[in-house]
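ok so for the tutorial part 2 we go from a plain amino acid sequence to predicted structure tokens. step 1 is just haveing the sequence, like this:
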Amino acid sequence: MPRVSRAQAQHHREAITEASARLFRERGIKAVSVADLMGAAGLTHGGFYGHFESKDALAGIAGEHAFAQATERWRKRVAGEESAAEARAAIVEGYLRPHSIRDVAGGCPTAALCVDVAREPADAPVRAAYLAGLADMVDVLAAVEATGDAAADRRAALADYATLLGAMLMARATAGDPIADEIVAAARERLLGTPAPARAARARQRQA
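step 2 — the prediction. this is what the tokens look like for a chain of 208 residues:
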């Protein structure tokens, strides 16, 4: 059997990481087997341990990958806004749009992994990835709070993120019932108040 080149091996590792980041968010860490992960990456089960020490180790790497993607999305979202208030609104509107709530596999890792991570031991790789990734996302949000006080900005960001996360989890759990829309609308109103016409128009454009 021919040896896999270094470039191919790296490509396979990246494919496994990407597939795992999606499957762990979609199904949960414990519910996904190594065979599931390798199959989703288009590879055979037997090659797994040539790339990763264990599924737990991969969960940490996949968590880092998912958070890096999510943080980059937030950074891009705020980059085009003219003020801190508009940047904060862009994060809120993007987070609470219907597609974001439905997209468990490709969506917010803070929401998708929180229950699994809470059940992991303190030294689990995925817990370390979760803590580091959450800190990065809070930093992005704190930077657009703009109270002029770094400590106050961080507290505001934590409260805002907790509201967003809770709304997403509750909306997913009640999908199909009218209360799901009520939850999202209430969270948006609490965070942004009544949307200004220009901001509402931009939000509709993003959703489209």
